[in-house]
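Researcher: I'd like a structural prediction for the single chain below. Treat it as a standalone chain; there are no partners to consider.
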Amino acid sequence: MAGRGYTIFDTAIGRCGIAWGEAGIAGVQLPEQREIETRRRLFKLYPDAREMRPPEEVEVAIEGIAAIMRSGDGDLSGVALDISGIPAFDQRVYQIVRAIPRGETRTYDEVASALRASGAVYSVAQALGRNPFMIIVPCHRVLEAGQNADRISPNGGSVSKRRLLSIEGAQLNASKTLFDVLLPVARPRPQA
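Model: Treating it as a single chain, here is the predicted structure.
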């Protein structure tokens, strides 16, 4: 990838934007009410980016995001992220959240516990509120206690967590602990 670029692309929920740099995806912008607003937000966040045709690695991310928006299916696990400038705590939060399977949700408290920082619920919520990698880091799968599907972060445009979870077929009461996801081999298996 040469230089920082961005593009606007179609999804089932509207025109999204994506910005990238040398190290990977720098950010994803979900659709605003109008495309011009999506473009303005991208320009505000990435003023040095130029609109251009995305390289192959970014096309893979775009296809995955579009698939998730269409049917809830899509694999973004191999998408490289440009985490330069992202605080270390936020990076750890994003790593945990990327491991939440499609169709499942967690609470901010569960993410904090998985980080072994149970008193850091507010810090987890703040990190997710700053998440520049919408959908790739599926912050919509992290809910307030009581499984409330609140509005997605400010970079999420006009799309709600509830809408994204509905597309993915999530059951709002289908939460497992993150330790079940991250450490499945450590659990004892039932005897047959």
